[in-house]
Amino acid sequence: MTNETTLAFELPEARAAATSGNAPLDRIAVRDYTTEVEIGAFQAERGVTQRIRFNVVLEVSSSAAAKFDDVDQVLSYDTITEAIQDQLAFERLNLLETLAERIAEQVLVNPRAVRIFVRIEKLDRIPGSLGVEIVRTRGDGENLHPIDTPAAQEVSIVHPLVVFLPNTVLHGAGLPAWLDAIAAHELPAIICVEQALETAPQADVDAANNRIALLSIEQNAWVLAGKDKRCVVVDSRTEMDWAIKNGQLSVWAPSKMVLDAVRKPKVGADQPLALAQWFAAEFSADHVSVLQGFDGAIANERLQIVDTATDL
């Protein structure tokens, strides 16, 4: 009989075999897949990459692939490696547990996938390694989507209306008319604002100043929300996706998305319009609409200057 303590530290292949029951399934495995990525909840893990290692075993229903040597009938190893790459590219994460869950969820969408073991380890935090391992079976957790749900199918991309609302509009008499026009637009709308009028404190480090500037933009987002209850401050990609799908009038609070982004903006928060353009590209918006102009902005294909609320 396998010792449970020994089994706990075995690779997923051994754990899968030991828990397979009387009717073992076929297995495919990706072992010691190592890459560098920015991940982690601690401040020391932001802005730097670290090595993480994946060991994944996927149990699958049997097929005739081996008998006929037909690659088209087999569930490919790429199913696992692509899930890893997709989830690493989607957004920066704080937790290995979240990454493991998302990889499992993506792989188990495949109709031949039955059960998956995902082990992820950080290799640079301690002299050895530290990590997590999860086991998921199709249909086990509420977070796993059945094959025939919309989450497993190709969905159409919604192109939101991204509006840059400068302080001249935020503190002007015409704000209610602008918000009425934005709320009435046929597209779901997201409002981006600039830094607050109050002078922000300054630090001796550029990274700290960027964080301060991001917080100043968020303060302004709350100022706008306080002026009109239709405006809802949103700081996470998940909530923003929900808001776009449900037509909520959102005001972007940028700190979390900027700091957690895999493809970080090339500009700092001291360039709020350029930051809004980065945000628009991240959410597949056709362009940014700048209300009444801003700091000499010049209209182009990706930037529209809107002079009056009726022109929006």
UniProtKB/TrEMBL annotation:
Pathway: Cofactor biosynthesis; tetrahydrofolate biosynthesis; 2-amino-4-hydroxy-6-hydroxymethyl-7,8-dihydropteridine diphosphate from 7,8-dihydroneopterin triphosphate: step 3/4. Keywords: Folate biosynthesis, Lyase. GO terms for molecular function: dihydroneopterin aldolase activity. The keyword Transmembrane helix does not apply. It is an enzyme of class 4 (lyase). Its EC number is 4.1.2.25. It comes from the Bacteria. GO terms for biological process: folic acid biosynthetic process. InterPro entries: Dihydroneopterin_aldolase (IPR006156), FolB_dom (IPR006157), GTP-CH-I_C/QueF (IPR043133). GO terms for cellular component: cytoplasm. It catalyses: 7,8-dihydroneopterin = 6-hydroxymethyl-7,8-dihydropterin + glycolaldehyde. Gene3D superfamilies: 3.30.1130.10. Pfam families: FolB. PANTHER family: DIHYDRONEOPTERIN ALDOLASE 1-RELATED (PTHR42844:SF1). This is dihydroneopterin aldolase.
